[in-house]
Structure formats: structure tokens, C-alpha cells
Amino acid sequence: MPPTVNRMRTLQSRLWQPQPPHRRPSLVRAGPGPIGIPPLVLALVLALALTIHGFHRVNIRMPAELHEVREANGQIAGKVRVIDGDTIDIAGSRIRLQGIDAPETDQSCFDAANRAWWCGRAATRVLIDHLGGRPFKCESSGLDRYRRVLAVCVLPDGSDVNAWMVQQGWALAYYHYSDVYQPQEDEAHAARRGIWAGTFMPPWEWRHRHPR
Is residue 160 pLDDT above 70, yes or no? Predict the structure, then answer.
């Protein structure tokens, strides 16, 4: 019989031999992964866990980030906390209202009847009430010697908060920085508003006599 025919018969006999039954591969533990979990599934689970963790961390940071100071082109805006009649805090940045000087928190003045009253505390309350939790932004122009931001601050209607405090008699024009608010001081003095209703010591002189 020709060799070619013999090879064909041999190949046919091999193809028709019964094959062992198909068995699903058993799951074995490979490396430190959990038993019975394929590597692809394990990778997907880990990726999902990392995504959830990252989302959770973003949610935790979000409230703080909403109150962070936003500064661009000298403008500062954020959650405001009043320190005294001429100083505020925006998200940890101490801001000195430029061009004005209000009585210190523990400074007292005298009314028309020569009775002492806490004019510094009153100036702080007046500023808090005037701001009233409204949106607020400040235009910074540099730092003072205490590293506080010097700024002119305005409300949404464009009104100058610094000027308003002087105009209502709760702060003086502070020549150490600027005399731009002298007209407002003259108006408050003539109308005997705020501390002008009695007698007082200028805040810069009071600080000189009461060093901290």
C-alpha cells in the first residue's frame, strides 16, 4: 500500500479516538488575592473601591473648600468673620479695612453726659449688623506691618464698607494709610453720629497708651 494512504489512515484513526470528558478548570489561589476570585474580577473590585474612597474624600473636603479664600487680581471673597470695627477675617486671612481706624474692642468712650460706654464693642456689633451675612468682597492693596491684608471692601450693591463705618461715626479716617475718608469723617462729626455724640480718644492714641 502506498505510504500516503497509510499516513491518511493513521491520521483518521487518531481523530476518531474518544476524547476525555471536558472539565472546567478548578479555581486555584494565585498570590495574595482571595481564593476563588479571578485576577480580572479582583482588579475591577479594587478599582471600584478606590473610586468610592476618592469620592468620599472629595465630599469630606468640599465644605472646607467652599469657604476658602478666592483671590484673583487682588480680589478676596469668602466667608466673613468680624474681629472688630476695622478688622475682619475671610477664611483665615486677616484683613484690615484700609484707611479707617475704629475703637479697639476693649476701648471705652464717653457719651454726652460724660458716662463711659464700650464704644469698641459697639463698633464691632454695628459692622456685623451692616454686613448681615451678605456676599462680600475686598480689593487688596498690600500688607501692613502686622502682615494683615489692607483692603477696601464692598457689598453687592457696590457700597464701600470702609466709608460707611466712618460716615456713621464708628471709625475715623486713618491718615497712616490714607485720608480718602476725610469727607465721611467730617460729615459724621457735624452730625454727631456714633462716637462723635460724646468724647473719645483716637484709637491710635488709645493703643499707644494701652500696649498689648
Answer: yes
